[in-house]
Amino acid sequence: MDEPSQPEPYIRFFDRSTPPHIFTLILLSGLGALAMNVFLPSLPQMAEYFDTSYAVMQLSVPLYLLCSAVIQLFIGPISDNLGRRKVMIGGLVLFMLATLGCIFAPTPFVFLLFRVGQAVIATAMVLSRAVLRDLYTQNQAASKIGYVAMGMAVVPMVAPAVGGAIEQAFTWHATFWLMILIAGGILALVIFDMGETAQPSNNTILGQFKEYPELLRSQRFWGYAMSTAFCSGTFFAYLGGAPFVGSVVFGLDPFWLGLYFGAPAIGYFAGNWLTGLYAMRFGVNLMILWGCLAASIGCALTLVLFISGLGSAETFFGMMTLIGLGNGLCIPNATAGMLSVRPHLAGTASGLGGAIMIGGGSGLAVLAGLLLTPASGAYPLIIIMLISATAGILSILLVIRREKTLRMQTG
Question: Do residues 3 and 137 touch, judged by C-beta distance below 8 A?
Fold first, then answer.
């Protein structure tokens, strides 16, 4: 099912007549990761600032994810019609405006409203991947996405610790000013470096949306999309529950919570590095399967450690590196698979697949937040993550079976 390799496209840095440099794509993907988690260690203090409960402020995670999922449904078709460059620039400008709203929000409701608006930065993640699929074949794209994601893995590795340190030195507002500063720099880079990569389309935007059924009828698309959703679901559940586990169950202060919180990014970095090295050699399906297995093993070992009475901040966050490893192996390869099912709908597929992944993740983040209590400890979160990772294994096995059937029919 894989396509033959094709020559590398001509790319020159700071030349918007050529495709964007991979460095630009790394920064774009990293900005989305920064917006998602840099402020999480400050959630307890933000609850005090707004005189509300932690549960209310924790909604800033699932609501952001849910809105991100909805936005991605529109970003793909719009960019397939208008082009990647225009949509990327517009998304960055809107993100900066929403971040300003968060800074000056007078009430928790207004903060959450603008926090939802920040989800427009999903544009950066969706289109950076669509750009790569515009330029490369399936396995080549998987390798490139792996390298891009390996670079952006540094952000979630460092951002929570930086956010926790900033909150202790200043206030939580400073982390949002940091987002604006970085987004402004990346916007300038996109303007001067990012050339258009999408093929010109005579289709209307409404016509692009009418292409969705072509993807929805594909069993392979659904297999790739669900394997990504379930494997990444372990991480999104972690996002929703780990701040509570770290601060309430283990009593960590914001700095140490931020430092421990970045543990999955170490595994994520390694997983994406392995994807960059081996996706061309082993193909996307095996890489996805190994990723889902790694996430499942990490969750299972964590549960065994807690049942054995060895649960601690070190063992809990340490095992989360396997969750990151699994995501680093699964996400770039499954994304390349989704975008290759119908290459002429790469932007649409990236948006729809991202919406499925983020939408499911927001649900798991909400569920984790609702079930965790001081009495329950970390058990509800661990069990949710284990179920999600196991479902990812089943999803990619269905893809492998489907491709085997197609080969037999055409062979």
Answer: yes
